[in-house]
Q: What sequence folds into this?
């Protein structure tokens, strides 16, 4: 049996020759299912200390807010007491389940069991959370994506209310008072549409921006960005639509954010069909692009709390924005100069990035790569804010996985022709890899093709032990970005509109055929798998095509 310790790669003469699919591997099913924690967001307090939310398989998925170690060598500190779990079920997928106030050293979070909001001090390890939202007897009201409003001593949040209907919940933007010992019914500030996200106050608390959208649209199809003024008694009035209301422009604005000087920035996909950064000129009610690029600076709003860019401080008088974007199958981290309209790329080892949190001259970046599992890295910038002087990983979802690096298969980004002439799709191909084994030159490996969920999710080409489980045993694996996936712009994403179960299935079959014809896979041993929407694609491929010999649908959409 293969050792669980990393192996030095052997020369081909010393490797064991065995059929593909029969190789021994230390990457076990137990390890795949139980070793990885999941990241639920990051934040910093008034002292710049990092906090993150992690869900732990060892504690049945309990969500725990953790504070970084105070001194090098110390252990991180759990903030969430054992009887609590930080998680919201707003819009089912959750996200944005906590917020830290820099000035108050306080966290507000949603508790999974009752979905109530709780307030807790982050300065004391044994601080007891105190509820601030009403107890309705059951978890029928939930909250997400909240912010502190110091002007009125309240917490502004998206509120999803299922008291009247569990099927058609009423979603609003509401304010929850923060007065100690005085729990009141939340005050609705914005209502009337089907869905809301990103309530964001300007630095003075006098204007609030938010995103809203309505059935039958998803937020990446069509959404609206609004701004309202906040009156002396805390009401939202004098509302103006910034983006998304012009019938001549199809767009899906997202991630509004006020700069320290009170300018509104956001991301939208008007003009070129890619999510790019824009700025609102309030005096003219005009939207200006900051930097046009055929790349995605954001991602679909499946979960609350996305944070793809941050304003950063610089010793020189510049308006700088740290941002990540995805282009041609990988992510990049850059510093955008708002005045010059230029981007300086930062050299870090991550090839996939999500959220960014900033403090003074450093960034906390959530990212991964082919050899890094989901991680948080502290990226220290120089005084000008445009060069990296240090890169340090401070959190990792599965640190034990790195000891199996000699077994890892590195992904190759491939582009393949689809059924539609002139249209291509993309995938990450992982060849079989094991430091101890090889197959004969004549044999072609079995192939497992994965169709991702969403269907507007995307394959990312990062270290995933559930993929390495197969490749280390002598299977080839391919993770497909079929038409409808994100990361390649609106036109690519909308290939699936009205054709779900057709385009995705065709593209998966085309990918398998491409690999087979190029000698990468055995035509008699092609298999397919997928979860949720990918499970539906799996079922449709097995039912209506003859490409795959077997498949596994994991919680597939089937009705």
A:
């Amino acid at each position: 049996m293969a050792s669980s310790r990393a192996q030095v790669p052997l020369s081909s003469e010393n490797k064991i020759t065995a059929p593909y699919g029969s190789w021994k591997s230390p990457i076990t099913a137990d390890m795949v299912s139980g070793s990885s924690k999941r990241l639920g967001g990051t934040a910093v307090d008034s002292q710049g200390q990092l906090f993150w939310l992690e869900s732990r398989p060892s504690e049945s998925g309990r969500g725990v807010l953790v504070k970084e170690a105070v001194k090098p060598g110390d252990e991180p500190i759990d903030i969430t007491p054992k009887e609590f779990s930080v998680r919201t079920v707003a819009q089912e997928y959750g996200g944005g389940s906590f917020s830290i106030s820099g000035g108050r050293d306080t966290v507000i979070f949603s508790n999974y069991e009752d979905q109530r909001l709780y307030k807790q001090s982050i300065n004391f390890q044994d601080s007891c959370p105190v509820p601030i939202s009403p107890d309705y007897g059951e978890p029928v009201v939930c909250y997400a994506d909240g912010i502190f409003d110091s002007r009125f001593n309240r917490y502004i949040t998206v509120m999803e209310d299922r008291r009247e209907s569990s099927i058609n919940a009423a979603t609003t933007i509401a304010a929850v008072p923060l007065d100690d010992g005085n729990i009141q019914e939340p005050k609705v500030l914005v209502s009337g549409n089907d869905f809301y996200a990103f309530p964001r106050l300007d630095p003075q608390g006098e204007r609030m921006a938010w995103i809203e959208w309505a059935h039958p649209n998803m937020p990446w199809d069509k959404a609206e960005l609004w701004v309202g003024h906040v009156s002396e008694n805390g009401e939202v009035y004098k509302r103006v639509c910034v983006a998304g209301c012009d019938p001549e422009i199809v767009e899906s604005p997202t991630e509004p954010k006020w700069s320290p000087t009170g300018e509104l920035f956001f991301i939208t996909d008007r003009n070129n069909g890619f999510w790019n950064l824009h700025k609102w000129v309030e005096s003219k009610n005009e939207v200006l692009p900051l930097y046009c690029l055929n790349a995605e600076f954001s991602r679909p709003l499946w979960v609350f709390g996305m944070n793809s860019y941050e304003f950063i401080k610089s010793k020189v008088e510049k308006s700088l924005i740290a941002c990540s974007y995805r282009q041609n199958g990988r992510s990049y981290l850059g510093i955008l100069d708002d005045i010059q309209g230029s981007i300086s790329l930062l050299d870090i080892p991550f090839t996939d990035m999500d959220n960014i949190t900033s403090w003074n001259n450093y960034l906390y970046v959530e990212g991964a790569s082919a050899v890094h599992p989901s991680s948080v890295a502290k990226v220290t910038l120089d005084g000008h804010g445009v060069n990296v002087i240090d890169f340090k990983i401070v959190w990792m979802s599965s640190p034990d996985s790195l000891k199996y690096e000699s077994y890892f298969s590195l992904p190759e980004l491939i582009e393949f022709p689809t059924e539609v002439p002139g249209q291509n799709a993309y995938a990450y191909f992982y060849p079989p890899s094991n430091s101890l084994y090889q197959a004969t030159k004549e044999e072609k490996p079995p192939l497992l093709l994965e169709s991702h969920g969403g269907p507007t999710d995307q394959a990312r080409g990062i270290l995933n032990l559930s993929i390495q489980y197969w490749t280390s045993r002598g299977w080839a694996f391919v993770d497909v970005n079929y038409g409808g996936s994100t990361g390649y712009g609106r036109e690519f994403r909308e290939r699936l509109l009205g054709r779900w179960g057709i385009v995705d299935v065709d593209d998966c079959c085309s990918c398998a055929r491409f690999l087979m014809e190029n000698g990468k896979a055995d035509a008699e041993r092609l298999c397919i798998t997928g979860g949720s929407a990918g499970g539906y694609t799996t079922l449709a491929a097995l039912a209506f095509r003859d490409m795959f010999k077997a498949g596994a649908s994991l919680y597939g959409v089937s009705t």
